[in-house]
Amino acid sequence: MSEMDDLAAFAMLVEANSFTLAAQWLKTSTSQLSKRISKLEKSYGVILLHRTTRSLTLTSAGAVLLPEARALLVQRDRVRDAMAYLSESLVGTVRLTVPASVGEVFFEAVLTEFSKRYPQVQVELDLCNHFRDMRRDGFDLGIRPSVGIDQLLVAKPLLSSQELTCASPGYVAAHGCPPTPDALRMHRCLLNSHSAGREGWWVYHQNHEANRVNVRGTFASNQYSLLKKAALAGTGIARLPSYMVYNELNDGSLQWLLRDYQTPVSSLFLVHPFEGRLPRRVQVMADYLAQWFVHSAAVLEKL
Predict the structure, then answer these.
(1) What's the pTM value of the predicted model, to 2 decimals?
(2) pLDDT tens digits, 208-241
(3) CATH of range 161-265; options 3.40.190.290, 1.10.10.200, 3.30.390.10, 3.40.50.880
């Protein structure tokens, strides 16, 4: 037990005026309670109570200590109430760490929809393509592929993402639509330099067979957002995560090419470092993100 616990026990003992009753309140034995009071007396070098079989009387030192002990007890209860309030209320900050390409797609929705719904919840969004130490760096939620989940994190499946082959209507009108993956060799492709550089391999599957196509292009970037902008500008053909392009495919500013061919699917997870129940402000953000990605997937299914 800490010194604060012992001071709280002292205050409750004086309130009860009985070791037996105070021990019941504290859910301990009278002998253990007596030892805690003796430990306090030894620690301060004073006698706090005169004890008889029928009564307890404060010494002058005990009378000085009692209001301080009661104040500590009240302060402890206030702290507990404050923490309970923060846990249950929709007030405070939610810190998220997510890959840049993921955060950029729901950033606007968080600014508008979520902030209107929960105006007293502040959102701190960290866009980072390497894995943060969520416990050390104080993050509440994260989005990660399975390879980024360690045993100290709680993970919930968030979405399955597929890279879709996309181009603008202007590019298709000028250069045609590749009928097969092999035809991509004749097109300008926008490459992810994180994995390919200016020349790389795009893999497609059909009828249980894999087709690896060596593609080339005049632009490469390690940021999907820039590849998306380049595709929208008609610069070439890009492979972009499905969660990034559902609006553009829906409004026609991008076209989905080679739809009969499958591309690799990857899963993303919503992770957090909490044990037990999430604070409510964090839970509503987790629920919001899950619903947002369900909606984006539903839009894609209708295309």
Answers:
(1) 0.65
(2) 889 999 999 889 998 899 999 999 999 999 999 9
(3) 3.40.190.290
